């Protein structure tokens, strides 16, 4: 971990590719700046890899697979054990880099790393996760068993909003299952991801087992169409995820695509008022709303519409500042382009007739006047045909809809095309049971605003938020990164036994 910290006076870093265990200077003529979203300071320059460089990374992974697939499970697990220890040791420094390039508060950056670290820790138990099955004497002297074997070279395409957690959802589980990996981190904030990759090499990941390329659509398409790659894991926007799923699927690859969201929190009148309001504000405005599991819609049932002034007052107390500054609650959004898009959607809400309870536009942060800041923004009087409801804003904007009953709330949520996460706030067990049974959303929280499951389970977004049937981490991702081979065997005690020719399909 010798890289200098962005913003510490060091020269602008030139980001490298990782190919066959070596950090390589790209020969690309297409480069993009990595920019601190709070200051517009250029932290690094990242290359968009050439087709030859992408091919070299995939080739290295393919070559390494021959020996890595036969590496004992225990040896792979020990690398993950060392990796999790190294991540813990260096988490503060990685968080500082992550905050500088992405804009998150330092506390949220550490949370980003920790949630990824949990997956690395879960990878250490692959010995029990990758077990096959055995059935003795399924027919006369015949045994049947299954093997879970690695599938080959896999690729991962990750978004800007979780540059630690989401890469750690991918490459540790693929590698520990015996696959090799080509990672394409977000070109907007790759520095913290590369620090994690550097630690993976230090932990003992062999040359070629993990490779890194950078780029945009051309690199994504190259990974989706490369004949050697067997599976592609993607997290990001709906538009890009749909493209990845269709293109990679057409080229015969397994694909898991976790995509956009519009997450609702339904609030019943019997909910604990203070706890619910705190949860809504934290889930809506934390990370400047740049979470695929952020609560972006509050559905107030019955007289909970009277809570809106308290919701506004609580949101007004949040401190907007650079993520590196003490006491910051809401940092900048990732780019000037993202800020412009969020502010345009806020304006659309005003034009379409919603009530702008709290306007986060025009926030000025002393000392960070060039930052991409949007303050907490709250709308009431929202209807389901407004753009602020139909589109994923990916900014610190919470929209409030009002209904009279829980049945109406369930129907409203189920009509929305997305299905990433939803929550219900109540003290009624009967209402909670009804909600979790009838709601058509992959991940449900009961008095939990962001119901991202721990790694023992799998991330289970659904409908418009997910393409592919297997989610990241947990048991499902072991299925995704392995193939099942079924063996049916018969052994004779006496080799001279001759049962004659059998032309029927059944086993004797």
TrEMBL record:
Keyword Transport: no
Class of enzymatic activity (EC top level): oxidoreductase
Top-level lineage group: Bacteria
Sequence ranges assigned to domain Aldehyde dehydrogenase in this UniProt record: 23-487
Cited InterPro entries: Ald_DH/histidinol_DH, Ald_DH_C, Ald_DH_CS_CYS, Ald_DH_N, Aldehyde_DH_dom, MeMal-semiAld_DH
Keyword terms of this UniProt record: NAD, Oxidoreductase
Residues passing through the membrane, by range: none
Enzyme Commission number(s) of this protein: 1.2.1.27
UniProt keyword annotation of Protein biosynthesis present: no
Family in the record: Belongs to the aldehyde dehydrogenase family.
NCBIfam families associated with the record: MMSDH
Protein name from the UniProt record: methylmalonate-semialdehyde dehydrogenase (CoA acylating)
């Amino acid at each position: 971990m010798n890289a200098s910290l962005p913003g510490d006076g060091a020269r602008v870093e030139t980001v490298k590719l990782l190919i066959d265990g070596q950090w390589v200077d790209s020969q690309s003529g297409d480069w993009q700046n990595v920019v601190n979203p709070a200051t517009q300071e250029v932290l690094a320059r990242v290359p968009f890899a050439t087709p030859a460089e992408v091919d070299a990374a995939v080739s290295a992974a393919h070559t390494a697979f021959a020996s890595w697939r036969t590496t004992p499970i225990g040896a792979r697990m020990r690398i993950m054990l060392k990796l999790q220890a190294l991540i813990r040791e260096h988490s503060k420094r990685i968080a500082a880099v992550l905050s500088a390039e992405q804009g998150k508060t330092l506390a949220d950056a550490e949370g980003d790393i920790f949630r990824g670290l949990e997956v690395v820790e879960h990878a250490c138990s692959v010995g029990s996760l990758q077990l096959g099955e055995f059935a003795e004497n399924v027919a006369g002297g015949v045994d049947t068993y299954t093997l879970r074997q690695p599938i080959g070279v896999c690729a991962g395409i990750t978004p800007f909003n979780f540059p630690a957690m989401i890469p750690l959802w991918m490459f540790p589980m693929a590698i520990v299952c015996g696959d090799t990996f080509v990672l394409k981190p977000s070109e907007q904030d790759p520095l913290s991801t590369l620090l994690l990759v550097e630690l993976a090499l230090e932990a003992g990941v062999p040359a070629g087992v993990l490779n890194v390329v950078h780029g945009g659509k051309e690199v994504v398409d190259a990974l989706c169409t490369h004949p050697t790659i067997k599976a592609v894991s993607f997290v990001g926007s709906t538009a890009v995820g749909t493209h990845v799923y269709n293109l990679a699927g057409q080229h015969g690859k397994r694909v898991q695509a976790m995509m956009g969201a519009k997450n609702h929190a339904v609030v019943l009148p019997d909910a604990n008022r203070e706890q619910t309001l705190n949860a809504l504000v934290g889930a809506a405005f934390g990370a400047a709303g740049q979470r695929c599991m952020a609560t972006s819609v509050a559905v107030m049932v019955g007289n909970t519409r009277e809570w809106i002034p308290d919701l506004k007052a609580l949101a007004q107390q949040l401190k907007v500042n650079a993520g590196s500054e003490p006491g910051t609650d809401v940092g900048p959004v990732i780019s000037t382009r993202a800020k412009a898009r969020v502010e345009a959607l806020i304006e659309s809400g005003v034009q379409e007739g919603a009530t702008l309870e709290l306007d986060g536009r025009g926030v000025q942060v002393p000392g960070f006047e060039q930052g991409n800041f949007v303050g907490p923004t709250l709308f009431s009087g929202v209807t389901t045909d407004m753009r602020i409801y139909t589109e994923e804003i990916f900014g610190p904007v919470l929209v409030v809809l009002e209904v009279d009953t829980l049945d109406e709330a369930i129907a409203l949520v189920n009509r929305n095309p997305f299905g990433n996460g939803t929550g219900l706030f109540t003290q009624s067990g009967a209402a909670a049971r009804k909600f979790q049974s009838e709601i058509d959303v992959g991940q449900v929280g009961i008095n939990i605003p962001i119901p991202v499951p721990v790694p023992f389970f799998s991330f289970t977004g659904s409908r418009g938020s997910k393409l592919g049937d297997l989610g990241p981490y947990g048991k499902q991702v072991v299925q995704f990164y392995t193939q099942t081979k079924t063996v049916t065997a018969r052994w004779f005690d006496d080799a001279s036994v001759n049962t004659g020719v059998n032309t029927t399909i059944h086993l004797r």
